[in-house]
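Hey,

Quick one before I head out. I ran the complex with alpha-L-arabinofuranose overnight. Inputs first:
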Amino acid sequence: MLTAKVTVDRDFVIDRVDPRLFGGFAEHLGRCIYEGIYEPDHPTADADGFRGDVLALVRELDMPVMRYPGGNFVSGYQWEDGIGPREQRPSRLDLAWKSTEPNLFGTDEFAAWCRKVGTAPMLAVNLGTRGPEDARRLVEYCNHPGGSELSDLRRANGYAEPHGVKLWCLGNEVDGPWQMGHKTATEYGRVACEAAKLMKWTDPSIEMIACGSSHRHMPTFGDWEREVLTHTFDHVDYVSIHTYYGNGEGDTPSFLAKPDSMGEFIDEVVCTADHVAAVRHSRKRIMLSFDEWNVWFRSSNDREKRKIKDWELAPPILEDQYTMEDALVVGGMLITLLNHCDRVKIGCIAQVVNVIAPILTQKGGPAWRQPIFWPLQQASTLGRGTVLRALVDSPKYDCKERAGADLLGLSVVRDDEGGLTLFAVNRSLTEPLAVDLDARSFGAFATASHEVLRHDDLLATNTIDAQSTVVPTTLAAPTVDGGRMTVVGMWCG
Ligand code: AHR
């Protein structure tokens, strides 16, 4: 049988996991907000119009942070449209997604929803069509206790307590020509620097995230981060990083190896950020906010396929129906994030409901878990503590994506009570893979549980009528002998 040897030592540490690694993202896009989060006529809706079934499922994911309101949407957003009495709020054309935005849900409702979920809001400001002063005003509206025009407006709108938003994204994917208010790195770097200054002067306790590249294959990648951080270095804490992977070509071995490329992408952004620090003779380290990541490719032609017209309200776009195979890649991406937790402090799966999301809903009907829900839930609930630097000697395979990819994807997390969790993906399409674990530095230990997400059909999915086709199963915990154990993962599981 194929065997990977894994050695872990309690003292070989990568870093503590920042719980914010397991965050989510909610954009005014498709049916994420309307029919996802907010549906006042839904049988489970509460007094605020929030769907109770969705609230319950999001709580299961235990996401410590939630990014909002975009995404591409934010680059044309006027936050003032979304506050105050609903009947006075305007409907606007959203140029990002060619939809009509009714503004029935805005910043205050989002903050209220976050409180109910038990997550912290992370807001993006519009640095596309707007600028530093509008961004600063939003900080004042959200975070200033009272006694100023905008904080008093919040109070008059029914929110006496400040929303206390700590994390702020300085725009979204401004390097992309598809973005409203697309800018060069120099143009963006200057605006982001000035916005960050004004926002922090309004509330010095906040943390700022500068926009990195939209993805690794942008022509400006690398130069963009260097130039933007050169302008913003003293005023920001994080640089963003985004990636989506797909299997449009039906090349599953390559698809399964994508999380390794994600790791290289992280390393490159870290090097670029540290280069800027070196040039400045600074010990400050800019951390990474991986605030958009996921599998996304199944819904690319949805507009045409579903005959969706321009300017519809909450059109069903970007509703990828995920499969077992996608869950393996999402699991692999989580393993990559955990193994880079010394520099990646924030992660937001894009997105949380309906739009490329772990949760799907039907208007007026049920909400259910997609296959990718499970690796997220497992990582978020079991991946808290300290990531150990495991020594992995895995059998390899070659694919178009890379030569010599490890068949085993693995991360090891030690919790604060000393317990160990191994997150593992077997990337073999044909063979079981045994993990031979040597954890002797932990002394005598016992195994508590062994959970597996697996299906014979890699394209198996969960639908409204069959919601539990891809679900984890509990197997007998492997036996331990003198600090060693062997656990076998079936192919692709
Ligand atoms: O998450 C969907 C979209 O992907 C976001 O709006 C944008 O930032 C990214 O390109």
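The chain has a mean pLDDT of 96.

Talk tomorrow,
K.
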